[in-house]
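User: Quick sanity check before I run a bigger batch. Here is a single chain. Can you write out its predicted 3D structure?
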Amino acid sequence: MDPQLRPLHDATIRLFAASGQYARHFAGGKLRHDPVFFSILSRGLFPDRGTLLDLGCGQGLLLALLVAAKEQYLTGRWPQGWPPPPLNLLMRGVELHKGQVETARLALRGRAQLEQSDIRDLELPQCSAIAMLDVLHYLGEKAQDRLLARAAAALDPGGLLLLREADAGAGLAFLLTCGCERLAAAMRGRIRQEFFFRSTSGWVRLMERLGLSVGVEPMDRGTPFANVLLVARRGA
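Assistant: Done. Predicted structure follows.
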């Protein structure tokens, strides 16, 4: 790990001290090996104010990272050359599984609003940013279409939608990614979990039909997987 990132990594992990050993190790492993989290911060993608809606937030890792980032920045321990993190952004996380919500609440201690809900049925409030990291492939095609349409409509003018998914058009790398997703679901007791993946071009076409401008960033650095980050914005 880049020594500049170690203080931010450690500060985020400490937030999970009361959440149990598994939550700490999971957070540490994701931050070390999954490039998406530090990439989002290093590019300064989130707005400084407004509301961030993290759909399918899991144990709240992205939200915890943003809390730790604010603390690190204000105390002068911030990676050189990075833009400031959001300092005035209200955060709301939504997760289906009760245990994950409880873990996130222990870690965040009131610094984000967290609720247990099915994002397929959730009424989305107007917000400046929406994140869905490794979430949509758990939904069917029509449910993905409906949720993305509601997300696009909920964004403020100029608002940001971050979507991280596997690229179904990436050949063997995608097959490995898909296999790992199925194995992880089975290990969580979800043997019958169904998945629906799209190619990167399929995601782009869908979001452009919803009036969003879309950029694509590879998110496979240091991994054998076929992940991409789609950075979409609603027109002003």
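The radius of gyration is 17 Å.

User: Great, the batch can go ahead then.
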